[in-house]
Design brief:
The complex is a heterotrimer of chains A (about 80), B (about 110) and C (about 180).
Chain A (H helix, E strand, L loop, with lengths): L1 H21 L3 H25 L4 H27 L2
Helix pairs in contact in A: 1-2, 2-3
Chain B lengths: L1 H24 L3 H26 L2 H31 L13 H9 L1
Helix pairs in contact in B: 1-2, 2-3
Chain C lengths: L1 H11 L4 H17 L14 H27 L8 E6 L5 H11 L5 E8 L2 E7 L5 H19 L2 H5 L19
Antiparallel strand pairs in C: 1-3, 2-3
Helix pairs in contact in C: 1-2, 3-5, 4-5
The chains are: A mainly alpha (about 80), B mainly alpha (about 110), C mainly alpha (about 180).
Chain lengths: ~80, ~110, ~180
């Protein structure tokens, strides 16, 4: 079951990556990247459940924090430069 | 407990996949934000819940922290991007089919 | 900002000088990046029971809005008709508006877009608009809940908490 979940997450990541590449605008790419970060956090959580290392959960917290920061900064940037 | 956890993980991953499909399929930036914000949040919460059932107290608490963090900040992020896109459209794809009361208000202002 | 630093300490389970500096840096960046949201606590009271009701409603909305989004994702794009709806706000209390804009993104099919001050209005992008006045009513109901949970006391004394009422006429604009 867990490998199935990971497979789904890989697929989700691939689809979002397509959107990051295709765009067409900066905002689209930022939105897709934000989604990718969530996919990564999910992957970390699944791996944390699978192994016994607590490294994954710490990284997940950091990514959660930084993800929002990045989105907020990107939004400011878009306002100045245009999407 | 293990079974429930694994089901949650699978369900959550599936929901995140649904979100990704939405982001790819929609043809306008606001619609993509709907999918990216709402669906990924729920998917993430399900995955975190599933993973938490398998972990010890401290790790489970950290996952709960991540969940609360994302739950609170993702909507704000979406709002900020939406606002930025509206103020500086550039070459973004926007599609409004029915009312646009924001533009109505803005044309009155200018 | 103080509690951000405390949180940082908890994460690393080690209160050392390097951590305090690191925490201050992170907290400072976060505070700078979120423009104009300081001074949140002026005059707001938290009513625990109402807060719990609001959070429960919130959780319910999260599930419903996801079901709606799921259906929209699998629907043919031509059937989905988007729009931007204006919702009048009850005064300009920062915290209430922020919480509302945050919660609103989780209501089914809506995304908060712009906030204007004069007159105080919230502009909402709706993915699939079926009934414009219905959208306004739903969001005003949410705003009432937020106000009852954490709004300033004087707002609650005003009739209907100062939230404008949308006339519920059947002649409202139906779009599909």
């Amino acid at each position: 079951m867990i490998s199935a979940a990971l497979a789904l997450l890989w697929l989700a990541g691939a689809l979002l990556l397509v959107r990051v590449v295709v765009g067409p605008s900066l905002a689209d790419r930022v939105v897709a990247l934000d989604g990718l970060l969530i996919v990564v956090i999910c992957g970390l959580a699944v791996n944390a459940a699978r192994t016994d290392s607590d490294l994954f959960t710490d990284v997940a917290v950091v990514i959660g924090l930084l993800g929002f920061l990045g989105t907020a900064v990107a939004a400011r940037f878009i306002e100045r430069r245009g999407a | 407990m293990r079974g429930v956890g694994e089901v949650l993980l699978l369900l959550g991953a599936g929901w995140v996949l649904l979100a990704a499909v939405g982001v790819l399929r929609f043809d306008d930036v606001y619609a993509r934000m709907h999918a990216a914000t709402k669906a990924t949040t729920l998917g993430l919460l399900l995955v975190l819940g599933g993973a938490a059932t398998q972990l010890a107290g401290e790790d489970a608490a950290k996952l709960a922290l991540v969940g609360v963090l994302v739950f609170l900040t993702a909507p704000i992020g979406a709002h900020l991007i939406g606002r930025a896109v509206h103020r500086a459209p550039g070459d973004v794809r926007i599609r409004i089919d029915t009312v646009d009361e924001l533009r109505d208000a803005e044309t009155i202002e200018s | 900002m103080v509690w951000l630093v405390v949180l940082w300490q908890l994460l690393w389970r080690d209160v050392s000088f390097a951590n305090i500096v690191g925490g201050l840096v992170v907290a400072a960046v976060v505070t700078v990046v979120r423009p104009g949201r300081e001074r949140l606590s002026a005059g707001h009271t938290v009513r625990p029971l109402r807060l719990v009701i609001f959070l429960g409603y919130f959780a319910w909305l999260l599930v419903v809005s996801n079901l709606v989004v799921a259906r929209e994702i699998v629907t043919r794009r031509d059937y989905i008709r988007s729009g931007i709806v204006a919702v009048p706000l009850a005064g300009t209390a920062e915290l209430v508006t922020t919480v509302l804009a945050d919660a609103m993104t989780l209501t089914p099919g809506t995304l908060s877009l712009e906030v204007r001050q004069d007159p105080p209005m919230l502009y909402v992008h709706v993915l699939h608009v079926r009934d414009v006045e219905g959208v306004r009513r739903d969001i005003l109901r949410l705003q009432r809940l937020v106000l009852r949970a954490i709004g300033p006391a004087d707002a609650l004394r005003r009739p209907d908490h100062g939230v404008p009422r949308v006339p519920s006429s059947d002649a409202g604009r139906r779009t599909s």
